[in-house]
Amino acid sequence: MLALIEKRTSRLALKAAGVLLVVAVIWLLGSRQNFGLQQYGQLVVAGIGTGAVYALVALGFVMVFTVTGIINFAQGAFVMLGALFTVTLYETPFTGEGRTGLIISALLAVVLTTVIGVVVERLTILPARNADPLTLIIITVGVYIAIQGLALIYWGHAGRTLPSFTTATGSDSIFRPWGLVIKAQTLWVLATMVLAFAVLSLFLDKTMLGKALRACSVNRDASRLMGINPSRMSAIAFGIAAALGAVAGIVLAPLTKPVYDMGLTIGLKGFVAAAMGGLISLPAAVGGGLLLGLVENLAAGVTKAGLRDVFAFIVLIAVLLRGRSRAGRFQ
Amino acid sequence: MKEAKRQAKGHRWWRLGLLTVVMLLVVAACGDDDAGTTTTAAEETTTTAAEETTTTAASATTEAPPVEGTAYKIGFVASETGPGSGLGVPEANTARMLAEQWAGGVTGPDGVHHSVEVIILDDESNADNGAALVTRLIEEDQVDVLVAGTLSGNALAMAPIAEEAMIAMISMASSRGIIESEGQTRPWLFKTPQDNQHSAAWQAEYLNSLGVTSVCYLYENGAYGQDTLNSAKQFFEPAGITIAFEGSFERTDTEFPIMTGAQASGCGAVVVGSIPPGSSSVTQAAREFLPDLPIIGGHGSCNSQYISLAPDAVEGTVLPCGKLLFADTLPDSDPQKANLLQYIADYTAFTGGEPISTFGGHAWDALMWAGEALSSLEENADLDARRAAIRDYVETEITDWPGTGGVFNISADDHLGLDYTGLGFVKVQDGGYINFPSSDW
């Protein structure tokens, strides 16, 4: 017992030392560029904005993983589809102009992507449902590559643009409190993330269907005995994940230039965020997403280099090593 | 939930899943668009093959002159897809246009007629692809001359291959390093775009006229961005301008944490060294974070994509650009004017009204040199002799040559042959480029 406590404290000390080291390095590099509170505040705000998108994607990973036990690498494709469908629908005349056009296009895009999510599950996961989970993961990678290829054929290689939600034009309104630069779209992203998280939590907690999904995640065989159809739950989980991905893509679209291959990086970062929380907890996935966005932005901001992805992948490697030591403990 | 946790940890394949991610990361690191573009590469090759046959067929059906000599081949590689496509597409369009104009072939000084074929390939903005395609053109297609390289990084990867095969390569990318290595001219390499030093000279003059003494320099990671930064360092300091902040970004980035540092440095102007989409995105970010500062671009942004990707943000920015963008306002005495207007008319007619960019002009200059060199050749030269003769022709005969990028005077010491007046200065106004000469500053 004592040994266990000791082990735990030493691990905690190690973690604290790691965090302190990162903070010290960031502070040191920042002070060389005369960074003050305003600069750090700016990087934190931008980091939370980016992190909120990762959090939305991570929620999709957690949904599919808990219910089906599959890591769905096609999640990034849903993000791309959500963004590009919205752009295309907005450009067609029948969805209308301005803000109404945007809302209609966004809703249609979410519906379309959700349908695609369910269809993908029925076509690729259902026939292989008795296969090894690793096989299923590889199938999702294949699905991702297939969807990206189709997107390249349909949308081409050039980046598109979507007007921002607030102004319905290319230039967003910007708030400048205390010298910070905050885009209205960043607030939309944050609000959407919080709303999606709340709705999802309520749905899983309060509704019968949500409870069935949760039952499936706890024990599939027992829930089958209780009359829950795990195959149906799997399709529903994929649908919800696709919807979450699409929403992430849509709120992100005005901040970036949606393009057919945007899903790979963002899907991987969403996965990193979800894996930081062990892939099974919704609040942990949100926390992981925000933390990842923060670390990435702070590190990129103080080093003057555009290598944001590098820092995200350093975090991934850290998560990998942690996951290994954890798995090792159980053997 | 505890139950689920145990379940999750118990599965050993969870770790295998992570392994998959690491592998995916490797793919991601090798280039964002690798996974999806394999199909395009295949498609691209087939279309080119089809075009090749049509070009040859066309030249075969034209009335054959008395003596038919060797068929000439020009190898052309541009970045038609990928992040460099804003530059590569007008270049490839220009190559197709000239291939059509040359369908009748050329007649040498000895009266022998030769068909001319332009083999057009796409390197997908990837330097490795570019190097592989150039090797293919040299060894399998046995081309006489190369016009290759949209992006500086790609051209630099192709250059040593051309040197080793002893074939002249005319680059459409701008880094000085393509034609010069440690102060020595690389004998087999030429380029048509103005130097980044020329851009920097204009930028320094403009900054002086504004009275700005410290700038934030934002450049893309890669050969082109690095070359613009080095050029700026070379020209800004003697002009009394310090670079208070230098920050780099990826060409495809849409978020720019470096803006925080730029803001903290308190510089008086922003200078951008990138091509679209990077230059558009970074200009947009600069407008948000430093709304009161003038923004100055480089000649890598002289195409319509720079404006179309962020029309509101780039409005009012100034940059040095080739005269192609304001040809109609030039005085008639300008030696380039006739060629510029001819190119604009031809290009517009050929593409059905695509916007003019200076990059198509770089391809035109390069291909015209190659075409001129080919028509100077005598029959009975073998391939190696032809390749050497083309190199010699470009080095010695392209003098007082009014192209789209300026009046070229190539010599053994200078394989570009332009000074900074090859560029003009423009301002983005009402979604287009307008002439902004120093008299208006």
Task: Walk me through the structure.
The complex is a heterodimer of chains A (331) and B (441). Chain A has 331 residues and is an all-alpha fold. Chain A has a two-stranded antiparallel sheet with strand order 1-2. The longest helix of chain A is centred in the first third of the chain and has 32 residues. Chain A is globular and about 60 Å long. Chain B starts with a helix and ends in a 6-residue tail after the last strand. In chain B, strands 4-1-5-6-9 form a 5-stranded parallel beta sheet, sandwiched between helices. The longest helix of chain B is centred in the first third of the chain and has 28 residues. At the A-B interface, helix 2, helix 5, helix 10, helix 11 and helix 12 of A face helix 1, helix 2, helix 3, strand 11 and helix 9 of B.
Helix content of chain B: 40-55%
What letter string, H or E per element, gives the SSE order of chain A?
Answer: HHHHHEEHHHHHHH
Distance between the termini of chain A: 19 Å
Number of helical runs of chain A? 12
N-C termini distance of chain B: 69 Å
Summary keywords:
heterodimer, A: 331 residues, mainly alpha, two-stranded antiparallel ribbon, 12 helices, globular, B: 441 residues, alpha/beta, 5-stranded parallel sheet, 4-stranded parallel sheet
Helix-strand layout with pairing:
The complex is a heterodimer of chains A (331) and B (441).
Chain A lengths: L1 H31 L4 H32 L6 H17 L6 H28 L7 H23 L18 E2 L6 E2 H23 L1 H11 L1 H6 L4 H23 L9 H15 L5 H22 L4 H23 L1
Antiparallel strand pairs in A: 1-2
Helix pairs in contact in A: 1-11, 2-6, 2-7, 2-9, 2-10, 2-11, 3-4, 3-5, 3-9, 3-10, 4-9, 6-7, 6-9, 10-11, 10-12, 11-12
Chain B lengths: L1 H9 L2 H17 L4 H28 L10 E7 L6 H17 L4 E2 L5 E2 L1 E7 L4 H13 L5 E4 L3 H14 L3 E3 L8 E2 L2 E2 L3 E3 L4 H15 L3 E7 L2 H14 L5 E8 L8 H8 L3 E5 L4 H12 L5 E2 L7 H6 L1 H4 L3 E5 L14 H15 L6 H18 L7 H15 L3 E2 L4 E2 L14 E7 L2 E4 L6
Parallel strand pairs in B: 1-4, 1-5, 5-6, 6-9, 10-11, 10-12, 12-13
Antiparallel strand pairs in B: 2-3, 7-8, 14-17, 15-16, 17-18
Helix pairs in contact in B: 4-14, 5-6, 7-8, 14-15
